[in-house]
Amino acid sequence: MFTDFLKHLFPRVVLEKNLRISYTFCLGGLAFTAFLLMLASGMLLLFYYQPTPERAFSSILFLESSVWGGKYLRSLHRLTSHALLVLVFLHTLRVILTGAYQRPRQLNWVIGMLLLCLSVFEAYTGYLLPLDQLAFWATQTGMELLGVAPFGAVLHDLLVPDGVGQPLSLLRFYALHVMILPLGVLLLSLLHFYRVRKNKGVLPYL
Asked: 0.70 exceeded by the pTM?
């Protein structure tokens, strides 16, 4: 699967017509590029962020005021996260409008929808980490809305067992944001690109 993923990113031959700019603008590839940029910038942010209620916000302030390029790095991480969501939504819309979810691509459609959901959840978990007033109240609102959804109470207790912004809740959001969800997005992306090649959807000549 990993070999097919690399072959998809670096094909041995490309038709001339596929090099022309089209209305799709390689939305899936652009979304994955945004994810890689977000991953790289996020790994650098790990050197300064402290996932505790007492130190989270102050570590962000220190990063932006005292670290060379820190403000640019955080802005890059935030902007690429926004770009990722926009590109994934546009890619999903393109798949719907062109009917690319139909046979034999039903499995890849399910994988793509899982990627969309994980991307949204990844953005949501990262929103709390600065632990400023905006992050706190936005997350608090989201948790209140989750409470009215099916199994919402169970998920609420799992994500914020001691309340939004408290030590255990912040640690769980941190673990989800920096390890569990990115790993899930990466593995599903590998599978997604593999299925594209398997179905010969965009490169039928390979």
From this structure: yes
